[in-house]
């Protein structure tokens, strides 16, 4: 079956009313629609989001999901996403144990934690795909329990794994979503072409998605969640499994979306990713918030400077550790991974003293540095383990990925 024939069949389904499209008028925007443009929404059911499916559930707005100038002038909401005392249990396990968080509009809000911390469960509650057992949450001023349809009109969701139709081309995937969202055929084609160009997929527009690389599939999946130009974009571990080049490219796209006015809720277990992208971070572990603030505030919480030394000869590791330990604030401020010795120090002059002591001991090092704490050290300090030390799955019986 050719792509044009598939598109024609979808057009007929929409035009005949066999695929339901629900028009609506937003209550919190002053946007003036162009001639013939219909603001529409497609309600999402939890079953439609299984296996990491993307939801593009919003009305058209800016070029790639951002507010236009008039919206920026009239926007009064400061807290875009709020959660207070969220609790969700699965049997005897409390996946969420009283989560509180507030994300400001037009920012990247990072939800950081190890596998099994409850990140995906939180995303699903905020997406109206799970009902919390206690607490409250709102998105764009709408309650996720009492006003789920309004919330779905505002959000786009990209799960942990790319969820595109492998038997359709890149253009056909985006066109199909546009038609399901109520765009007329010419609008859907134009939106698909616009997103393919923006995500550097124009040259592969006619290629079947099953022939895409992992990075291309991830970009197509993200583009799919933006067809409806959502105000709020949820990215659940978007770079998991990507190579470094694809990861950097996706980071750049996320920054561009925020610059366009979108609000991004990002879950990740990659500390570098949170440090590079997030304006604010909430660290959760075992379903509880254990730290919150900007990346710089969290680093300040650890305090001091981080001194690291990597001996050229592995047999000198123990002697190197003893020398650096003399400058550590306490026993808990020393860490070694078998190759690199890391200590937290309060005195910046420690670096010069360490150099002299290592030289006196005849120890040659391949790497010696003094720097501010990273989020890795922050996480280790507040949880006692690294982000990927645990492999406990998310406890949602319908979706066992965090």
The side-by-side strand order for the widest beta sheet comes to: 3-9-10-11-6-12-13
Give me the CATH superfamily of the largest domain: P-loop containing nucleotide triphosphate hydrolases
Into which percent range does the helicity of residues fall? 25-40%
The backbone outline, from C-alpha atoms, is globular
What's the total helix number?
13
Largest sheet: 7 strands, mixed
CATH architecture of the largest domain: 3-Layer(aba) Sandwich
Oligomer: single chain
Mean pLDDT: 77
How many domains? The number is 2
- State the end-to-end distance: 37 Å
* Percentage of residues in DSSP E strands: 15-25%
Text of the CATH class of the largest domain: Alpha Beta
| Low-confidence sequence ranges | 20-77, 389-402
Number of DSSP-assigned strands: 17
Secondary structure category: alpha+beta
CATH topology of the largest domain: Rossmann fold
How much is the radius of gyration in Å?
24 Å
């Amino acid at each position: 079956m050719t792509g044009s024939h598939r598109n024609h069949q979808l057009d007929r389904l929409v035009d005949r009313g066999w695929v339901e499209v629900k028009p609506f008028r937003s209550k919190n925007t002053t946007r003036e629609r162009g001639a013939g443009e219909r603001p529409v929404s497609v309600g999402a059911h939890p079953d439609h989001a299984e296996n990491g499916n993307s939801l593009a559930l919003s009305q058209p707005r800016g070029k790639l999901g951002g507010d236009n100038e008039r919206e920026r002038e009239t926007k009064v909401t400061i807290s875009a996403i709020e959660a207070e005392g969220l609790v969700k249990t699965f049997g005897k396990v409390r996946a969420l144990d009283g989560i509180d968080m507030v994300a400001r509009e037009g920012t990247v809000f990072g939800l950081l934690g190890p596998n099994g911390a409850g990140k995906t469960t939180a995303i699903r509650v905020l997406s109206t795909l799970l009902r919390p057992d206690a607490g409250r949450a709102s998105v764009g001023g709408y309650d996720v329990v009492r006003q789920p349809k309004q919330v779905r009109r505002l959000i786009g969701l990209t799960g942990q794994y790319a969820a595109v139709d492998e038997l359709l081309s890149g253009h056909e995937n985006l066109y199909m979503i546009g038609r399901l969202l109520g765009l007329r055929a010419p609008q859907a084609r134009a939106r698909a072409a616009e997103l393919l160009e923006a995500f550097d997929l124009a040259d592969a527009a006619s290629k079947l998605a099953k022939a895409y690389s992992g990075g291309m599939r991830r970009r197509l999946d993200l583009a799919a969640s933006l067809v409806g130009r959502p105000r709020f974009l949820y990215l659940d571990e978007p770079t998991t499994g990507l190579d470094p080049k694809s990861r950097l490219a996706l980071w750049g796209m996320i920054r561009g979306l925020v610059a366009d006015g979108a609000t991004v809720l990002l879950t990740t277990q990659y500390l570098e990713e949170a440090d590079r992208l997030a304006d604010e971070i909430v660290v959760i572990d075992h379903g509880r918030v254990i730290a919150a603030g900007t990346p710089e505030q969290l680093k300040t919480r650890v305090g001091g400077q981080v001194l690291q030394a990597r001996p050229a000869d592995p047999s000198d590791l123990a002697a190197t550790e003893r020398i650096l330990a003399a400058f550590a604030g306490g026993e808990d401020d020393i860490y070694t991974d078998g190759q690199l010795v890391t200590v937290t120090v309060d005195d910046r002059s420690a670096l010069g003293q360490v150099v002299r002591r290592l030289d006196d001991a005849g120890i040659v090092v391949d790497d010696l540095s003094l720097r501010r704490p990273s989020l890795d050290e922050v996480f280790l300090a507040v949880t006692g383990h690294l982000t990927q030390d645990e492999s406990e799955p998310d406890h949602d019986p319908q979706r066992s990925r965090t």
